[in-house]
Amino acid sequence: MKTVTITILLVLTSLNLFSQVDKSSELFKTLQKQDSLLFNVGFNTCDITQFENIISDSFEFYHDQAGIINSKADFITSIKNNICKLSYKARRELVDGSLQVFPLEKNGVMYGAVQTGKHRFYALEKDKPEYLTSVAQFTNVWLLEKGQWKLSRCLSYDHQDKEDSINEKLLFKDKAETEKWLVQKRIPALGIGYISDGKIKEIKVYGELEKGRPAPDNSIFNVASLTKPVTALVALKLVNAGEWDVDEPLYKYWTDPDIASDPRTKKLTTRHILSHQTGFPNWRRKNADGKLAFEFDSGTKYQYSGEGFEYLRRALEKKLGKTLDQLASELIFKPLGMNDTRYYWDSTMDESRFAKWHEGNGNLYETYKSTSANGADDLLTTVEDYSKFMVHIMNGAGLSKELCSQMTSNQVRTKNNQYFGLGWLVDENIGKGESAITHGGDDKGVHTIVFILPKSKQGLLIFTNCDNGTDIYIPTILAYLGELGQGIIDVETK
User: Fold this and answer.
1) Which pLDDT does position 164 carry in this prediction?
2) Which residue spans within 38-108 are E strands per DSSP?
3) Could you say which of 67, 410, 425, 456 is the most buried, measured as most Cβ atoms within 10 Å of its Cβ?
4) What is the reported pLDDT for 6?
């Protein structure tokens, strides 16, 4: 028992060393379904068969108040004799957005997953309204046993008899209520930009840059991959000016030494890069030898790649004799008045306004200060500046009608009702004849996303500075975009 307990504690303390899976992934959806069967069906209706089917024969249960149960049979007996014989009807509810899943692997093969979350428990007595009995954290260890997901370990802890309620009607309207909500969600800072009728209507930043330092509306965020649409527009503006060709092979200006002997370099174009059809991995550092290599022929299928945008940066700089940040400043930042936007840390950067990166538990990450431009990552900007960029895109981006159309046309399909254009992802059929031009950014301590709705002339920007920033995406999207927001969610999560 001692060894098992230590193992579980090691798993818990090391979760932040690994990345949680995306909530649209099959693994997340599968374990979300298992959680629903376990609680919504099993616990809430006392359907014992769910526990018999889902729980592993090696099951152990740890409760911070009720102690330890170290067998499947004893746990099921406890459910029968306690939960199922209460004088009231018990109900468990998963706190929206709290669920996280971390894969467990050995030698590159997944053997299980750790699932964490927060749940509420309610009681319903005859002739009385339902009331809250407790709020707790949980951690489940799921193992693949003969191809089936089985619950092996369950930890239920941090039980509280009450929870500060949030008036959801006041979210994004009342600063104090919104910041209380962020504290509950463990999100230090939230930046929101809202565009209506083609104009910036709202610029707000809630929370803290770091503990004890309130975040001003002009807070500077690292926006991760939201860098890519900016780099894409630099290239497209040069195409529009006749200084670049979206279909010209890039080897004329740049060839990475790692792939110099590969004949496929002669076919790689800007169009392939902007639509993520290069054939490159996301980053070469993930390859065993750390070198760049084609994984398939360019232009044959979709595969997201930051390497592609770095390749484009080098080609642009070689031909034009200017750095990417110089080009972006001339073509985008200065004309749009994006005075707080830059590709890297320089002497003009006001560090006192920087939204520092946080783990999901609130701990700070060390701030990495890039000293040169990356075409794919690490753009530094404010909610207002990037909202100006979005309005510019919404209004045609200063491009010819044909080129602007190509930017949002189907270059390669990614999944049902979704494709990549040139620099932007497009969610189709979100309702009312509308599509959403979108892009996200995800790095350690950073989660950001933007949406542009060209027909209705709406836009939404969400910036966060923590690992669990995605937990507030859905309520924020629904609050600002309503029915169309639900359409976006349906496309993004299927």
Assistant:
1) 67
2) 55-63, 67-69, 89-94, 100-106
3) 425
4) 39
pTM over 0.85: no
Residues 437 and 452 sit within 8 Å (Cβ to Cβ)? yes
- Which helix (H) or strand (E) covers residue 176, if one does? helix 175-185
Q: Which residue reads 């489940």 in tokens? A: 140
**DSSP states of 267-335 as a string?**
G-BHHHHHTT-S---S-GGGSTT-----SS-TTSS----HHHHHHHHHHHHHHHSS-HHHHHIIIIIHH
Angle of helix 227-240 relative to helix 306-320, nearest 10 degrees, comes to 40
pLDDT under 50: residue ranges of the chain: 1-18
CA angle (442 as vertex; 366, 192 as ends), nearest 5: 95
Please state, as a whole number, how many other Cβ atoms lie within 10 Å of the Cβ of residue 146: 5
Structural domains of the chain, with CATH: 2-160 (3.10.450.50), 176-493 (3.40.710.10)
Burial of 28 per CB tally in 10 Å (0-12, 13-18, 19+): buried
pLDDT digits (tens, 9 = 90+) for 74-125: 999 999 998 898 888 999 999 877 899 999 999 999 999 999 999 989 898 8
